[in-house]
Amino acid sequence: MIEPFQPAAHADFLRDESRRTGTADRIAFPRTESEVLEALAEARANRMPVTTQGARTGIAAGAVPEGGLVLNLSRMDQIHAPRGNAVRVQPGASLDAVRAALPPHLYFSPDPTETTASIGGMISCNSSGALSYLYGPTRNHVLGLRVATVSGEILDLRRGRDKADGLRFRLGALSGTLPPLPRPAVKNAAGYFTDPHMDLVDLFIGSEGTLGVVTEATLRLLPAPGAVWGLMAFLPSSSAAAGFVDALRQSSRGGPAPLAAIEYFDSRALRFLGEHAEELASQGISVPPLREGASCIYAEWHAPAAPAAEAALMAAAELLPGFGADPDASLLADNPHDIEKLKLFRHAVPELVNSAIDERRKIHPGLVKLGTDMSVPDSRLADVLALYGADLAASGLEHLVFGHIGANHLHVNILPRHPADYAAGRALYDRWAAQVIAWGGSIAAEHGIGKLKRDLFRQMAGEESIRKMRDLKKLFDPGWLLNPGTLLEGP
Ligand SMILES: Cc1cc2nc3c(=O)[nH]c(=O)nc-3n(C[C@H](O)[C@H](O)[C@H](O)COP(=O)(O)OP(=O)(O)OC[C@H]3O[C@@H](n4cnc5c(N)ncnc54)[C@H](O)[C@@H]3O)c2cc1C
Questions:
Q1: Could you report the per-residue pLDDT of 262-297, keeping only the tens digit for each?
Q2: How do residues 390-420 score in pLDDT, each as one tens digit?
Q3: Which of 13, 20, 33, 57 to probe ligand 1 with, by most ligand atoms within 8 A of CB?
Q4: Do 227-438 and 86-223 fall under one CATH topology?
Q5: What residue's CA is closest to ligand 1, atom 53?
Q6: What CATH architecture is 3-72?
Q7: CA of 47 to the centre of ligand 1 (A)
Q8: Would you tell me how many other CB atoms lie within 10 Å of the CB of residue 464?
Q9: Ligand 1: which of 78, 113, 372 to mutate, most ligand atoms within 8 Å of CB?
Q10: Which CATH number is correct for 86-223, 3.40.50.2300, 3.40.50.620, 3.30.465.10, 1.10.3660.10?
């Protein structure tokens, strides 16, 4: 079942959406749990590192191999019929496929924008996305997991049933005491966490494939919202946008319908989209009329029925003049077709950035995008926007800012034109990370640490927590074979 790695035929499996390229010696495409165990047994026998892959849409290089065996799960893509509020799926099933398999009244809310992502990858990164503002990250929607351990066992874990006793745990032949690892109070996808009496399934969610291989997931399904309405508003500046977001968050508490998402695009992101309008039109994506120089907030409400969604949207629109924006210049989506159009348009921003970088790599092959993924507490939203704005304006670097502003979580994308730009951008990134950490934020709010952010992660977590995380990994992977180099440095 394990094949030799053929650089020509298997080149795609050396990289993910970070555009980092690795190396590998062997590759396996298991279709069943037994084949995963077989591959792990061979890796164990030969002390061969294993890099697990889902759809390789990750942007932190977690799925990029550094030698050894690539365990690609894309062929484990079975989806069972939903039962009640749950559906069992193999890890390689894509989010698109899971959605398509559900009847219209059931809803799986995690939405990391890139819908070709696999369920196993989403679980391993504890992915979020726009709708996590209301529904929380993928973790909140996992009822159970089957996990293959590197020692050759299958752990069948159920939320609510398989819990730690204090910090002690027993799972099959594995047992021990979990090190205490509290989680930050902001949106976060950086490393392990533990709680006394925790659901043990949570150890594996967000662990980036470093503790075991997810071979099946039971996902929690929600009743589909009866009405989804969206508003795209254009504000005169980033500080006006931050003020509007604060007012929106406060006014929506106890409002007629829950706010499901609050997203942000700065004026450069809007301009960038406008510049690529023709290319997007050829992909069926229409760029709405955009206001030059404006910052944009997209808000979305999910309600049982249209009147509640409409009332919530109208209440939000009434806030706009207070922040210098004209409600009549806003765009409204009140049906699935228009909501989908706005979603495609939003997804186009990171996709276009990646394509632009690919073009530049033809001249400077080593060039990669610099994309941040940092979150801060509510009280620091305006500060972080001001910090990014001032530094970027002074830098002369090509850039744009977008992201999940409702969770105080923005992606700054710097598009280097040559290696010197990259070095200048990286210096800014490091400066911002130090400030975000000092404010109590996270340097990885949803993309994970992978292989690209270990240095920032070390700064954020501190040496003591890193040591405890290494202890935790050794409980499940004493030979340090699973995804070495992802999240934590080698043994
Ligand atoms: C254009 C674009 C937009 C994006 N927007 C968002 C966003 O808004 N929010 C967000 O959260 N993410 C976003 N992402 C990142 C990415 O889509 C998610 O992280 C996604 O969950 C990765 O899934 P994957 O199947 O591609 O995983 P991979 O990239 O294949 O793997 C990711 C990690 O999970 C591990 N892994 C994969 N499968 C398993 C398994 N079965 N068992 C154990 N470990 C496993 C891998 O080893 C690796 O460490 C975006 C990506 C792109 C390209």
A1: 999 999 999 998 888 888 888 877 777 777 778 999
A2: 999 999 999 999 999 999 999 999 999 999 9
A3: 57
A4: no
A5: 57
A6: 2-Layer Sandwich (3.30)
A7: 26
A8: 9
A9: 113
A10: 3.30.465.10
Question: Which residue type sits at 471?
Answer: D
Atom of ligand 1 nearest to the CA of 404: 8
Q: Is 155 in the pocket of ligand 1 (CB under 6 A)?
A: no
Residue type, 176: G
Strands in 3-4's sheet, in edge-to-edge order, are 3-4, 26-28, 69-72, 50-53
Query: Would you kindly state where each structural domain of the chain is located, as residue ranges?
Result: 3-72, 86-223, 227-438
Check pocket membership of 465 for ligand 1, CB cut-off 6 A.
Answer: no
- The reply to whether ligand 1 has any atom less than 6 angstroms from the CB of 91 is yes
Class of domain 227-438: alpha beta
